[in-house]
Design goal:
About 15% of the residues lie in helices and about 45% in strands. It has two helices and eight strands. The protein has one domain: Porin (Beta Barrel), CATH 2.40.160. This is Outer membrane protein beta-barrel domain-containing protein.
């Protein structure tokens, strides 16, 4: 990830953190949220995009995401299992998740006709991290393992062999996401 893209991703989080710093003395509500709207980058945001999560039960969330995924519009839908304490509250909330949607993006410079998104299942886990000055939301970090079929490798090999496309980057077996979730309810 280049420095400009990283700066663009982190800038909203820093501004939110600074704006909430004034309310440090307020007692945060760390009870489980029921609805969140997140902005961030990663598969669970559809690329660079939004994530809407609804929790019909405090430990189980259903989410939908959509955003820009380098080769077009990416989307994902999934389920999130939060590992919350039985009693009390926690600022760090681990979770496991599974989703279906885009899990590979092939973007060819100066030849967008070859751009293609691939869809399939992805599993992973992460942490939702709140703090005393972010009582209206929290940062969410995750590691994802996309389950890709042979069609992705076959497409890349076809582009190399038949169209002379050179690939400078390789698909990683894992991906990461970072976002900020605004608590709506």
């Amino acid at each position: 990830m280049n420095k400009t893209l990283l700066t663009v991703l982190l800038l909203p989080f820093l501004s939110i953190t600074i704006s909430h710093a004034q309310s440090r003395n307020a007692v945060p509500d760390l009870s489980p949220d029921k609805v969140t709207l997140g902005i961030g980058g990663g598969q669970d945001y559809g690329g660079l995009g939004l994530n809407l999560t609804v929790y019909p039960q405090k430990n189980i969330g259903l989410f939908a995401a959509g955003g820009y995924a380098l080769a077009g519009f990416g989307y994902n839908v999934g389920v999130k299992l939060r590992l919350l304490p039985n009693e009390g509250v926690s600022k760090v909330r681990p979770f496991l998740a599974a989703m279906y949607g885009y899990n590979a993006a092939i973007a060819v410079s100066d030849a967008s006709q070859y751009n293609k998104l691939f869809y399939g299942p992805t599993v992973g886990g992460g942490l939702d991290i709140g703090s005393l000055f972010m009582h209206k939301g929290y940062i969410s970090l995750a590691i994802w393992v996309p389950i890709r079929g042979d069609d992705v490798d076959n497409y890349i090999n076809n582009l190399k062999t038949n169209y002379g496309v050179a690939f400078n980057n390789h698909l990683l077996p894992i991906s990461f996401s970072v976002g900020y979730k605004f608590i709506l309810d």
